[in-house]
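Running log. JK asked me to keep both predictions on one page so they can be read side by side. First protein, sequence followed by its tokens:
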Amino acid sequence: MPEPTADDVADALDALRAATPLVQSLTNVVSANFVTNVLLAAGASNAHIDNVHEAAGFAAVASGVLINLGTPDDATAAAFDLAADGASAAGTPWVLDPVGVGGLPWRTDLAAHLLTKHPTAVRGNASEIIALAGQGNSGRGVDSSSGSDAAVPAAIALLEFAQVVSASGSVDYIVGRGDSGPVGVRVGGGSPLLTKVTATGCSLAALVAAYLAIAPTPLIGITSAHAHVAVASDIAAENASGPGSFAVAYLDALAAVTPDDLRRRALVEPFSLSTGRA
């Protein structure tokens, strides 16, 4: 399986907008509204179905599923379990976003349990990926104190459970299962203002679920979501004076970005899994 290119992510954007995939988001109370707006702007749609009565059934009919551990409680944890089982039984791609794992034991145990259900993709910041793989704890709540490149060994280890894993940061590092072993791709760009607006990471994970639904491979799907966000945020930053105006401009840019924009501006390149270099 070759590493994705800017042409691949441009084609995936076309496919996303043609299909309008429906994402079931079991996400946190802080992010629910922004996740929905991001999906709508990008070309997908969202249903926030996170109760134990409907989680499994909806996962079977959704295009993709997001399970986000931002604000879990006993009821949502049970719904996570049901949604993961429902998605797996139906062949629906699903994403695990292990928000805040590492420093909080119950949340970390919950994430480890969900990991054994084999998500299609795992997306987190570097500290979350490192903690989920059991290789350390360098997080500060939901924030990372590790560079995304430092999470590559942990991301590779998580391929035992998931088909693709990404660690977000100033450069996003993505690994996936290849025909003869793991392969790596990184996505550059992306405005630092993304870190000043709540739920940009959560909404990226939701967008990963949308792209997994239409991409020819999980690696192309997750890379396309990262590239779409990076290019849109760069465009938004050109028209923003601070975090507030950036949040509005970002939604506009997610909707306005074209496949040709991705071909011209997406910084997608393979990297060596042993050295981290292109």
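And the second, directly underneath as requested:
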Amino acid sequence: MQEFIEDDLGPEGLARSVVVVATSDAPALLRRQAALATLAIAEHFRDAGKRVLCLMDSVTRFAMAGREIGLVSGEPPATRGYPPSVFADLPRLLERAGPGLPGQGSITGLFTVLVDGDDHDEPIADAVRGILDGHVVLSRSIAERGRYPAMDLLKSVSRTLPHCLDPEDNRTRLEARRILSTWADMEELVRLGAYAPGASPEVDRAIALAPLVEGLVAQGKEDRGRSSAAFADLANILAEPEP
């Protein structure tokens, strides 16, 4: 936490931030209340007309605190040991993010979920995915390859992104996803030498362009960029002649 405050926020960021901390060794009630207090603070600034960025790490720890409280109070365990109250609390927490009433500001919420055993269909991740507008999936295998941010582009989905881009950028994005999807389907065969070049123009194009797309999304912690420039670079990659 100290590293985040000093290195990421810094004096300038801290002057515009409210930090609520309840570490994993804190009592379950305190951990649960820290999350609820965070959204209450965000709502205060939203109602004052501010545009609020709310970061929470993590919803899983909020749910685990709710599980401890529920089990101690006598609730029966349900899905993977989580009592029903946990799944009732999740929308009460997460649905508070979003735009306010006319004349108010908004809350943009970024909530992390720690999946159990890399299972993205485990109960908390599944429940959160159904509530929020989109999800960014970080992959352990991509991190092990040394590509950061370790975002799995094919598993990451946003319901609002298509409305945030112009038609040309949307077409570029979808074409890039098709190339990455084709490469993901054929990667193992290509590496084993079971694919003969020239058998499919679509696969040949994916083999040529997928590494370039992967290289484009690699980014260092201090790197800064603009979406317009990124889409222009992606369009240039996709404009490469057929192999």
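Observation for JK regarding the second prediction: The longest strand covers residues 51-56.
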